[in-house]
Design goal:
Mean pLDDT: 81
Largest sheet: none
Radius of gyration: 17 Å
Order of helices and strands: HH
Structural class: mainly alpha
Strand content: under 5%
Low-confidence stretches: none
């Protein structure tokens, strides 16, 4: 049974989104800082989940 071919546009879209998420989000947090609401959200999710 043959595997279907990869769809280049979809593969590229998901790859670029993943790379942006792991580079841009931490960079933004380091350069601009996180506000209090974001910190509270992370703390609540860390305690309950």
């Amino acid at each position: 049974m043959q595997k279907p071919p990869l769809i280049a546009v979809t593969t590229l879209l998901f790859s670029l989104t993943f790379l942006a998420a792991i580079t841009v989000v931490p960079w933004y947090g380091i350069t601009h800082g996180f506000d209090g609401l974001c910190s509270q959200y992370m703390l609540v999710h860390e305690l309950y989940f």
